Amino acid sequence: MPLRLIQPVASVAEVVRAQLAGMAQQQQFRTRGLAAARPATLGLAAPHPVFNLRLDEIGQPGALDRAAMTGWRYLVTSGSSVIAAAEASASHAKGRASFSSTNEGVFVQASAEAIANAEGWPEIRAGRYALGLIRVPALYVVALWLRDEDGKDGGDRFVPLAPAPAPLAGGKRIGSVEFEQALVEIKRRRGASKGTSS
């Protein structure tokens, strides 16, 4: 079956749509794709919760379970094209949301491509996976988090979004254990490089 899109409460999409419409009407978009799009063509697709993982959690047992939800993210479309992402802040799934940001950075197209690719994977088609996004800001890691909802298919999958620091590879799916091991290694390397440069 396709990836399950967790729908936030209706007010989340309303907040994001209202902000996008207001910015478009006042010509406040500073980025090329949004500025060039006609306001009437803007749409929201693929809602997914966003989680942040703190640096001090990496390497601890159950680290991923303690990743904190920070809000909701949508892909912004114009016609059939994905042109940006928009986010709303919320501390839990049913929480009240406030508009956070829009962006057209490298992770937008990487997200769209990774979602499209994931829909074709045998384990996704055979199981029940919910779409999410996880960030580790201290390590500059952003990844799709495909959460295994029935536990029959070997656990969660992660798809690091390019550019991803080694040993992660952008667009390549990995399991939870590999993902956590990679984060530990990236943390170790960053710590070592900071130590040698000071």
Give the count of helical stretches: 5
Rg to the nearest angstrom?
17 Å
Give the beta-strand count: 8
Strand order of the largest sheet: 4-3-2-1-5-6-7-8
Portion in helices: 25-40%
When the domains are counted, the total is 1
Query: In percent, how much strand structure appears in the residues?
Result: 25-35%
**Low-confidence residue ranges:** none
Q: Give helix and strand order, one letter per element, not per position.
A: HHEEEEHHEEEEH
Q: Determine the structural class based on helices, strands and strand pairing.
A: alpha+beta
Task: Based on the model shown, name its key terms.
alpha+beta, 5 helices, globular
Characterization of this structure:
With 198 residues, the protein is an alpha+beta fold. The protein has one domain. The protein is 31% helix and 30% strand. It has an 8-stranded mixed beta sheet with strand order 4-3-2-1-5-6-7-8, with helices on both faces. The protein is globular and about 45 Å long.
